[in-house]
C-alpha cells in the first residue's frame, strides 16, 4: 500500500510515520508513505501557496496551481489515477468499515489542507472523496491524514504482528472490545475476574462476548442498534 500525502508540512509526516508500527511496516515494504511538499511546486520566489478569497472574508485559501502541479508530479507515468482523498470536516466520517475498504487499495493520494480552505476547483477536478475523522475543526489535514494512514495500515496483512487477536479487535465485529487484564491477578486488592484465570476457553469466550455486548449496549447504543440490525 502506497500513500502519497500532499502537504505543506512534510517533515511532520516523516517524524510520525517512521516511528513504531508504521515505521516497521515501511521497513518491511508493506506500506510506503511519501510526503510531498506542495511548496516545492510553487512558481514564485516566495513559494506562495495561498491567497485572499474572492468575495472577501477572513483567512486565506490554498491556490490551485501548486496543488495541481504537485498532483501531476505524483501521478505522471501512472497508468491508472489513484484514489484522491481530501481530509476535511465536510467529508464522510471515517469508520472501521471504510478503513477496511481503503486497505484494499494499492495506492492512495491524501490531500492535506490548511488555512480557511482550498480552492473549490481542486476538489471538483482532483478529489474523489472527502473524508472526515470527526465532527470538530482542526488547523489542518495532517493529523487526519495520519489517523487514516494508521487505521488503514494496521489492516494490511503482515503489518500487525498479533494478527491472530485481530478478529476480536473492538469495532471489527461492530462491537466494543471486552475488558482486558494482565498480571498481577490481584493488584492492591483489586482482583481479575475469576473466569479469566479458569483456563476454560469456551467459557472465557462466552464471557467476553457477553461483556462486549453489554458494554456496547451501555457505551454506544448506536453501535448496538447497528449490530442488532446486522444479525
Ligand atoms: N475534522 C477533520 N477531519 O478531517 N479533516 C478535518 C479537519 O478539521 N481539517 C482541518 C482543515 C481541513 C482542510 C483545510 Cl483547507 C483546512 C483545515
TrEMBL record:
Ligand binding (S-adenosyl-L-methionine): 113, 133-138
InterPro entries assigned: Alpha/beta_knot_MTases (IPR029028), tRNA_m1G_MeTrfase_C_sf (IPR023148), tRNA_m1G_MeTrfase_TrmD (IPR002649), tRNA_m1G_MTases_N (IPR029026), tRNA_MeTrfase_TRMD/TRM10 (IPR016009)
Localization: Cytoplasm
GO cellular component: cytosol
One GO process term, biological-process aspect: tRNA N1-guanine methylation
SUPFAM superfamilies linked to this entry: alpha/beta knot
EC number(s) from the headed UniProt entry: 2.1.1.228
Catalyses which reaction(s): guanosine(37) in tRNA + S-adenosyl-L-methionine = N(1)-methylguanosine(37) in tRNA + S-adenosyl-L-homocysteine + H(+)
Enzyme class: transferase
The keyword Nuclease is annotated on this UniProt entry: no
Entry keywords, A to Z: Cytoplasm, Methyltransferase, S-adenosyl-L-methionine, Transferase, tRNA processing
GO molecular function: tRNA (guanine(37)-N1)-methyltransferase activity
Function: Specifically methylates guanosine-37 in various tRNAs.
Description of how the protein assembles with itself and partners: Homodimer.
Name of the protein this chain belongs to: tRNA (guanine-N(1)-)-methyltransferase
Amino acid at each position: 500500500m502506497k500513500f502519497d500525502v500532499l502537504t505543506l508540512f512534510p517533515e511532520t509526516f516523516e517524524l510520525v510515520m517512521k516511528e513504531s508500527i508504521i515505521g516497521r511496516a515501511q521497513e518491511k515494504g508493506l506500506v510506503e508513505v511519501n510526503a510531498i511538499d506542495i511548496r516545492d511546486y510553487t512558481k514564485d520566489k516566495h513559494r506562495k501557496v495561498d491567497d485572499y478569497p474572492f468575495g472577501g472574508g477572513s483567512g486565506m485559501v490554498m491556490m490551485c496551481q501548486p496543488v495541481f502541479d504537485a498532483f501531476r508530479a505524483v501521478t505522471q507515468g501512472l497508468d491508472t489515477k489513484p484514489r484522491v482523498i481530501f481530509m476535511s470536516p465536510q467529508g464522510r466520517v471515517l469508520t472501521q468499515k471504510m478503513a477496511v475498504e481503503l486497505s484494499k487499495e494499492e495506492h492512495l493520494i491524501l490531500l492535506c489542507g490548511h488555512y480557511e480552505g482550498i480552492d473549490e476547483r481542486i476538489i471538483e477536478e482532483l478529489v474523489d472523496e472527502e473524508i472526515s475523522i470527526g465532527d470538530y475543526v482542526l488547523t489542518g489535514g495532517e493529523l487526519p491524514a495520519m489517523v487514516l494512514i494508521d487505521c488503514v495500515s494496521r489492516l494490511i496483512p503482515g503489518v500487525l504482528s498479533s494478527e491472530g487477536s485481530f478478529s476480536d479487535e473492538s469495532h471489527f465485529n461492530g462491537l466494543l472490545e471486552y475488558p482486558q487484564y494482565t498480571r498481577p491477578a490481584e493488584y492492591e486488592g483489586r482482583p481479575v475476574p475469576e473466569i479469566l484465570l479458569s483456563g476454560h476457553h469456551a467459557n472465557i469466550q462466552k464471557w467476553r462476548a457477553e461483556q462486549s455486548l453489554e458494554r456496547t449496549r451501555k457505551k454506544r447504543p448506536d453501535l448496538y442498534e447497528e449490530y442488532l440490525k446486522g444479525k
